[in-house]
Each structure stands twice: as structure tokens, then as C-alpha cells.
Write a structure and sequence with these properties.
Order of helices and strands of chain B: HEHEHEHEHEHEEHEHHEHH
Shape of chain A: globular
Number of helices of chain B: 11
Largest sheet of chain A: 5 strands, parallel
Radius of gyration of chain B: 19 Å
Order of helices and strands of chain A: EHEHEEHEEEHE
Distance between the termini of chain A: 8 Å
Structural class of chain B: alpha/beta
Strand content of chain A: 25-35%
Number of strands of chain B: 9
Radius of gyration of chain A: 16 Å
Structural class of chain A: alpha/beta
Strand order of the largest sheet of chain A: 3-2-4-5-6
Shape of chain B: globular
Oligomer: heterodimer
Number of strands of chain A: 8
Chain lengths: ~180, ~300
């Protein structure tokens, strides 16, 4: 199995910082904007973004939640085994807010489709934007495109993009693995 | 993101479940409890599944709870009550169910007065079966929700002492509860008049006690069962009044214990017989939590079973 590092070290930090500044450009002080990380791995990215935004804006008031999309997936009972659920933790009303959906890797877009459905249970947002760290372009199954992109990569279906985080795996890194099932 | 599955295709009894299955059900129950406490209580995973609720025996809680669980998972639901059906015209169980299945039903939730009805059905038809009570045999979802409620109230089931009081002889709730609690590592005692305790119940590894006060002093949790008069063809005790005096739980008994125990009841309550109103409505009672958890547990069971259909 071959490994290729797409992003790590200083470049990883700069990418996150750049994404945060792009967010600030569009959302000012985040008074009507909430961050929603998609469970399980998007929530780590969302945590990092909130941390960074808190530092830049010198505030602690940015609202952030985690959204689990398991029950809204379109492949339930259509593939081997099934993915067990994670928890939802959204302790605010999304009604009328601008929502930034955050996930680590965008591939087919089906997760985001499910997330848009799952989000409706928390109210009708004024606007929904999508931020991803890695965009595996040219591989979408549904017409969904991100508004904020850390890095675009060209990859084959057989490959896997894996993002690890300092908080959970000890290192900030994005790697491209040659075989998905390993 | 681990892929996890139940080890059985049907839920016929706690006997068929292993510890992993029970823990998997509880884990999913946590998530579904989150779902039913939101403003929008519905999620779509079972939207292409049709479930038949077939009740050959009366039920309020279980039937409503299953129906609500099914609807909150977006399944299509048909209901069938034996009393208003062709069963009274002499149709057999298999014929009845096969006719329902011919209407393309994927899952059957069944309550039946005969023990083993669910097992019998699972051998003869293709749909997945969920046992909602078969005679005096098992009532698995009730045991799961009872254990889940204990876990929620006391943090864990392991090491806890649970006494089941009342009509053990006719109770499917008792059997399923004993099996489920033991698998989760709790100690179980049964308490009631000699005539209502099966002779060989000790072989299940439970303690037997005929004195209510002693039993209550021993336990952390008391599960008070209803006297099932409809199943008693002979007199097992002189009168309900005498039973209530010997085995009824009232506030005075509860207040005189040196510790605070948790009081449960699977319903329906006969107020003033096995439990008095002030106990049923007291802070120590988690009877209504049991009902709430019932919906979430049943959602978890249906969801996990549905996920393994091919």
C-alpha cells in the first residue's frame, strides 16, 4: 500500500488559518452564524476551526455543534454491515441562522446531502455553506460543491484520503492511501 | 465508525441475545432518545419498510410504544387486533400471518397468548419477527427497557441488586428481566407468595425470598409486577386484599427502609394492589421513564434488525 502526504506541518496550519480568514470575510463577528461539524470526523475539524476563530476574533461566543447523519444516509441496508451512529450535540436553534457545515473530506457528496436533511430537524437555516479540508474533485455523485476548500486533490475511487488530528491521533496530517480497504 | 450487527435475525427472547447485542441496543437507544427529545422527532431510515403489529392479546403500552417507534423511524405500519379479525372465524396463526405477509410486509411485531408463538412463526415465514410478549414465556423489549432504565438511573446495571416482586409464575416480564439483568451482571431476587413462585426458579440462579421487607432491604431496585388475574385459572392466594397487605408496596414501607431504592413497574398498574398511588407517583418511582425509554429501546431494536435485511 502506497502513502502520499498531501498536507502536514506548517502548511496544514496555514491552510486552517486561511480558511478561518475566509470565513471572517463573509461572516464578520459570527453573531448570526453557527458552525456545525459532521460526525464523526468533521467535528474534529470544526473544533479546530472554532479554536482558531476564537483566537483571531478574541471571543468565546462562536456557537458550534456536531451533527450525526447516520439515520439520514441513503445507503442504509444497501451495503455490508452498517455504520453505527454518533451523538448529536446542537444546543442552539438553527432557525434563521447562517450555518457552516464542516467536514474533513468531500468525496461523493452523499454525506452532505444527508446532512442537509438531518439539519432540518433543528430548524430552517437562513443559509447553509460548506467548508471542507480536502475536496476530492471530479468524483461527485450529487450536485454539491463546497464554498471553502482547504485543498483540492485528484484521486481515484480505489484510493482513500485520511485526515488525522493532533488532538486525537497525535499529528495534523492528510494522507492519500493507494488502497481503500487497508 | 465500527460496523456492528446483532447476532440474531429476529428478537424472540433475551435468551438469544449476548452481552454485545444488549450493549449495542443500549448504545443505539441513547441516540434514539436524543431523537425523540427533539422538536422534530422523526428520522427516515425505515422509510421503505412495512411493519405489521399483530396483537392476539390486549395491550396498551407495548402496542402504542411499538407503533410510535415504527412511525418515528418512518416505517409504514399496519395494525391487527385478533379480537376484531378473522381469527375468531377459525383461521390458523400461520394462515393469518401469511395473508398479512402476502401484502408485502417486512417485519412482524407479535403478541400472542401462547409461549413460543414467535419462535414457531420465525420457522415458517420469511419476515423478521419481534416478540412483543408470548404467553408466560418472554417479553424481550420490556426487559431491555427495564434494564436500560436502571442503567440510566443508577449509572450501571453491573453489581446492582434487583428484586422482582409479585406474580412470577405467570410473568413473561419476570423471565426476560431475570435473563437480561443477569447477562448485564446484576444480582436478581424474586419475591412473592409460594404459590406464585415457580418451583425450580432457583435453577436460573436467582435468590428466592417470601418476605417483602427482607427483599426490599436487600435490593437497590424493586420491580413490582402486576397480579395477572386473567392468567390465573385457580386461586393462588386467599384475596387481593390479603395479597396487598403481604406484598403490596406502600409509602410507609418505603420510608422505613434504611436506603433509597428505585421503584419500577412494567404496567398496567393495579393501584392499591401491588403498589399504592403515593409510591407509584413518588420521586423514587421511574415508571414513566420506563415508558419513555420503551419507545427509544424499540426504535433501536427495529433499526438494528432492519439493518441486517438482505
Amino acid at each position: 500500500m502506497q502513502k502520499r502526504t498531501l498536507l502536514d506541518g506548517k502548511k496544514f496550519q496555514i491552510t486552517i488559518k486561511r480558511l478561518c480568514h475566509q470565513l471572517i470575510e463573509n461572516h464578520n463577528d459570527f453573531s448570526n452564524t453557527v458552525l456545525i461539524g459532521i460526525q464523526p470526523r468533521g467535528s474534529y475539524f470544526a473544533d479546530r476551526v472554532k479554536l482558531e476563530l476564537d483566537q483571531i476574533l478574541k471571543t468565546k461566543n462562536i456557537r458550534k455543534g456536531n451533527l450525526d447523519i447516520t439515520f439520514f444516509r441513503d445507503d442504509f441496508r444497501r451495503k455490508d454491515g452498517f455504520v453505527s451512529a454518533s451523538s448529536n450535540s446542537i444546543d442552539f436553534i438553527v432557525e434563521g441562522c447562517k450555518v457552516i457545515l464542516i467536514d474533513d473530506v468531500l468525496w461523493t457528496g452523499r454525506t452532505i446531502r444527508a446532512a442537509l436533511d438531518a439539519l432540518l430537524a433543528y430548524g430552517r437555516p437562513a443559509k447553509v455553506e460548506l467548508m471542507v479540508l480536502i475536496d476530492r474533485r471530479f468524483s461527485r455523485h450529487v450536485p454539491i460543491e463546497p464554498d471553502y476548500i482547504g485543498q483540492q486533490v485528484d484521486s481515484m475511487d480505489s484510493q482513500l484520503v485520511k485526515v488525522t488530528w493532533k488532538e486525537t491521533e497525535g499529528e495534523d496530517k492528510v494522507i492519500l492511501l493507494s488502497e481503500r480497504n487497508k | 465508525m465500527a460496523a456492528e450487527q446483532l447476532s440474531t435475525r429476529h428478537l424472540l427472547g433475551i435468551k438469544d441475545l449476548n452481552l454485545n447485542d444488549i450493549e449495542l441496543i443500549f448504545k443505539n437507544t441513547d441516540h434514539f432518545k436524543g431523537v425523540i427529545n427533539r422538536t422534530i422527532k422523526k428520522v427516515p431510515p425505515l422509510r421503505d419498510i412495512t411493519i405489521a403489529n399483530i396483537f392476539f392479546e390486549n395491550s396498551t403500552r407495548t402496542k402504542l410504544s411499538f407503533e410510535l417507534a415504527e412511525k418515528r423511524l418512518s416505517a409504514d405500519v399496519i395494525n391487527f387486533a385478533a379480537s376484531s379479525s378473522s381469527v375468531s372465524k377459525g383461521e390458523t396463526l400461520i394462515d393469518t400471518v401469511n395473508n398479512i405477509l402476502a401484502m408485502k410486509v417486512d417485519m412482524v411485531v407479535m403478541r400472542h397468548p401462547y409461549a413460543g408463538a414467535g419462535v414457531f412463526l420465525s420457522k415458517h415465514i420469511n419476515a423478521q419477527i419481534v416478540n412483543a410478549g408470548d404467553g408466560a414465556h418472554e417479553h424481550p423489549t420490556q426487559a431491555l427497557l427495564d434494564a436500560y432504565s436502571i442503567r440510566e438511573k443508577l449509572g450501571d446495571v453491573r453489581g446492582k441488586k434487583v428484586v422482582i416482586v409479585g406474580d412470577i409464575l405467570h410473568s413473561r416480564v419476570a423471565i426476560s428481566n431475570i435473563l437480561c439483568l443477569q447477562k448485564l451482571g446484576a444480582e436478581v431476587m424474586v419475591c412473592g407468595p409460594t404459590t406464585l413462585i415457580p418451583k425450580h426458579i432457583g435453577s436460573l440462579g436467582v435468590k428466592v425470598e417470601h418476605n417483602l421487607i427482607k427483599a426490599l432491604n436487600w435490593c437497590d431496585v424493586a420491580n413490582m409486577l402486576r397480579i395477572q388475574l386473567e392468567r390465573q385459572d385457580i386461586k393462588y392466594f386467599p384475596s387481593l386484599r390479603e395479597y396487598a397487605m403481604m406484598y403490596g408496596l406502600n409509602k410507609q414501607i418505603l420510608d422505613n427502609l434504611d436506603k433509597e431504592i428505585v421503584v419500577m413497574h412494567p404496567g398496567p398498574i393495579n393501584r392499591g394492589v401491588e403498589i399504592t398511588s403515593d409510591v407509584a407517583d413518588s420521586k423514587q418511582s421511574i415508571i414513566l421513564d420506563q415508558v419513555e425509554n420503551g419507545v427509544a429501546v424499540r426504535m433501536a431494536v427495529l433499526y438494528l434488525l432492519a439493518s441486517q435485511r438482505d
